[in-house]
Amino acid sequence: MVVGRVSPQIARDVNYWKRTIFPIVLGIVAPCMGVAALHCACVVRKGQGLLLTGDSGAGKSTLAVALARSGFDFLSDDWTYFSRWRDRWRAWGVPTTAKLLPEAVAFFPELASTRLSVALNGETAYEFAPDEMFGVGRSLQCEPRWMMFLERDATAPLSLTRVSTMSAAARLDGNLRPSRPESLEPRRSAVEALSRCECFQLRYSESPAKVAEALSRYVRMELATYAG
Fold first, then answer.
1. 3 occurs within a structural domain
2. Phi/psi of residue 72, nearest 5 degrees
3. pTM of the prediction?
4. Is residue 1 one of the residues assigned to a domain?
5. Residue 59 region, left (φ>0) first, then alpha (ψ -120 to 50), else beta?
6. Residue 189 maps to which CATH number?
7. In the structure, how many helices (H) and strands (E) does the chain have?
8. Which candidate, 131, 157, 166, 139, places its Cα nearest to that of 47?
9. Residue 157 confidence (pLDDT) above 60
């Protein structure tokens, strides 16, 4: 059980609940419900999830927004939650704001109308609702299908290289923070399931819009083949 007390002002501040309280509470109670929280972004096309992970600065949030603007539904840009649902693993998001660092205004000029704020981790960033800012669709859950390990490389063109199940599991496990004991089993199960997705290393130097366009074409072809 979680018990807390807030002031009337905070109780009425919807944005503060979305930006701060919901993520904190979910991070605390998720392991007790068999839910694994993984540091990755997620966008959705026809119920199928495309997960984006990688080291800090790899461009997860920026690419997630660019993909949403190219026709995907936005699910999350920072933390995504995974749990079993009817014997299958599902990815879940919460209706929090998205966060982009100040340099993202070069790719999304609309952000200039939003004031910078200090995020939970101390970073100065733009925080905004993607559906309100860009008119994109939002999803709260999906079935994970693709996993992209992002790597920025200023010397190489865009490339997509398949990653084996074993390598994907090792990379995912390496990207996670140390967990509390109660988090270990949900995390292990989630990593094992996600490593069986179609996993790729995405190396790129192009703008988020160009990378999103290429990924969108790939997903459309995959979905068309699957439907056929």
1. no
2. -85, 160
3. 0.85
4. no
5. left
6. 3.40.50
7. 8, 12
8. 139
9. yes
